[in-house]
Predict the 3D structure of the following.
Amino acid sequence: MGKLKLIIVLAFFIHSFYGYSQEQLGIRMDNYTGMDQAWTNPAFVAASPLTFDIHLVGLGMFVEQNYGFIHNTSILDMKSKTDFVSALDLDGKPVPKGALVGDIYDTPNKKFAKFSGTLTGPSLMIKFGGQHSVGVFTNMRSAFAATKIPAILGYYAYDRQDYLDGFTVTPFKGAGAIWNETGIHYGIDLERSNGSISFGGNLKYNSFLESGFFGLQDELTFTKISKDSLSINYPAVEFGITTGNINHISVDANNKDVSIGNIGPRIYGHGFSADLGASVQIEDNDLEGYRWRAGVSVLDFGMAKLNSYSEFHSSYPIPTDLNLDFNDLQDAKSLNELESKISQAALGDPNASLKATSFKMGLPSAISVQGDYQFIQNVYVGGTIVQPFGLSRYNLTRTSVLAVAPRYESRYFSLTAPVVLRDWKSVRMGLAGRLGFISFGTDNLGSFIRKRDFTGTDFYFAIRLNAINLPNFLSGGGHKRGKKSKLGCYSF
């Protein structure tokens, strides 16, 4: 049962460290958040009322999965807990006081796990000529998604499977990466008699720090031979991985010892990507600003090649069967040794599985459609659809989103309440706000305040400086912007 406990702890720890909210609806639908709008539609920056924006830092978190959960808790509730135990370790015993209880779902549903992340560094946007926007930005991002994992691979389902009784595993795959992007932005806002049409783009240079993928290409049959071994028939498997750091980690499973050598940031490959967008705004004589706005954008369109300390492995030509002895695999002290043992067992040669010392990875590409309508002054309802697509066999996968978000928005304050449907099956409610230069929020408010089975969470914040009438802000005044007016620089 100790292994189960370790699985749960590691899963939630990894998610908490790398997770990030991809769409950040409470920030990116706001007209006064400058470069933050560029990640939804770069054309919105060109039509922004701001004349400049300095984004100092942004950070967030998004994670969701259906493999395991923590019983009846929330983020705020976790702060008062002092211990973590697994449900199987309890074995019917009372829950220790102040303990969180983790478990793994025993359901017939296919499993998935997703997170994506970024740390937004310094970014700058300047508008000139009344219609042009230019900018530079830096981000550090991470992403991982594994989808369509057969339910039979869940802990309980696999544990119940009888020995020598084969079961079928259907194809599934997963991919993940950590990378830096440095980019430039340009946008143009073209005025029309009743509004404007805007176009914008971000061009990004990507440097990959870590990356990997796994894919089961066809159905296969698992058979449990004993507690420590199994047989796999016709395994059509591919995987790629960067090895610069992993090869410096040595594991002695028998003595429960891990040795870490020279690990640190390493660049394994590069690539380019782009965000492209267009939008239209229609004005109304009864309102300041626009009556409605619509936009469409293509996000993270691009690929990267990993060609330094990178390996692509494949089981092709597919062996008839593969017998794995976990006791033998446990003796492997490094990734290379583990790969060699599996290659020997599957293909009769410890080096046969290595097909190339490079591989390609698609960015988390998506097409997005946005709409925004101002009912009365400062009161809006916005909507967003994000649908991912891939450019290569293995891609960093974005989460599909359908969201509706009513909001109140003024120059110095906004409040947004998004309702988000993720992957067309999971509904969450969020809450976000902006006060002057600071934005913060979550697209999953329930994970913070509602005690229930905890499977993931979401939060984000950003700090920026941009055009603002500081004395008016401190005195509680407002700033009205007329049609096509633009906010100037600091005014004292």
In short: The radius of gyration is 25 Å.
